[in-house]
Amino acid sequence: MATTDETEQYPLPPSSVDSRLYTDPGQFERELHEVFFKSWLRACPSEDVRNPRDYLIWEQLQQSVVIARQDDGSLTAWHNVCQHRGARLVEESGKCSSARFVCPWHGFIYDLGGNLRFAPLKQEFDESRLKNMRTPPVRVEEYGGFVWICFDESLPDLRSYLADIATELDWFNLEGFDVRYRFDAVLDANWKVVVDAFNETWHVPFTHQETLSEVVQWGKAHLRICDPHSWMSIPVRGLTDRAPAGADHRASEITHYLAFPNTIYSNFPTHLQTWTMWPDGPGKTRFVAYGMVGPCPAGLSEEKWAQQNDRDWNNFRAVASEDTRIINSWGQVAHSLGQRDYLFNRAEGRLTAFHAEIDRRTRSGGATAS
Ligand code: FES
Ligand SMILES: [Fe+2]
Q1: Whose atoms come closest to the Cα of 264: which ligand?
Q2: Residue with CA closest to ligand 1 atom 3
Q3: CATH of domain 15-38+176-369
Q4: Any alpha helices (H) in the chain, and if so which ranges?
């Protein structure tokens, strides 16, 4: 599937997917290896490792990775595993003033870049095995105020990977935004249920009757597929109706992006909410969300701007809790004998594209045109 026709509201035909792909442990393993370990993944806000010698332990997807700011300001990332006998090397995030990490088991010492600097009883080892020893590196880049990591050497750089999504996001100048709010939750559902739930709008009049249905013009969403990613723009009252004719879609509508496989941006021109879904087993997902705020718009006091942002973030929390209630209820019937195929209509075209991509990578019979 290639980038689709720009003019069509719903560019893809209906499709379906076998619901067993959401519960099967074998499929879950294939997704870890073929999807997550072969994608760029958004790990944490850059501000969490802002200064030299700040480091953070990222633990998702059964992995533990140290992300550290080096003295020259660059980042390094490496697997948090001692190369002597496999201990978890660094125990908690923080600041490493000495620039040395000491393994808690037998005292191997590593530097900020994960290179072995000292081994007790060195003469008793096969010394050739210790030469140039280091914890296996993980690729790391920064974009849009976040640190991204990648376990695959063969993927292109982050910007090439994000492609159209980066081109879209560039408009917002996210490096000038603050990560002002945070929220996370554990959901009783497969991670794909969570991605699906946030990538279509026509549940709005039902799930979000009280919160969004009067504001978001969900029926006018325009979908865009740019494999493996996708996005949509959605008119919204109070913004679209006030925008000058011919304004850029990012200035006049909510724009909503999926950076494949698991990061979503829901953007207003001046602020946004963004979240990542981390699978933690076939039936459990960690949902990690941030509120980002741009510079105070002209004509608004800082105080008013802060109040508006608090209000918007509280609204997001309310909307997200409506979504998570439905998502958790899926978990209560995930193993029901009544589970069959899931049907995606044309308004759910981003789900069709997402599952086709998962299917292509895991080769296990996913979304099919019906
Ligand atoms: S496992 Fe780290 S020093 Fe032995
Ligand atoms: Fe929703």
Answers
A1: 2
A2: 106
A3: 3.90.380.10
A4: 25-34, 127-130, 158-162, 164-170, 191-198, 204-207, 249-252, 302-333, 349-362
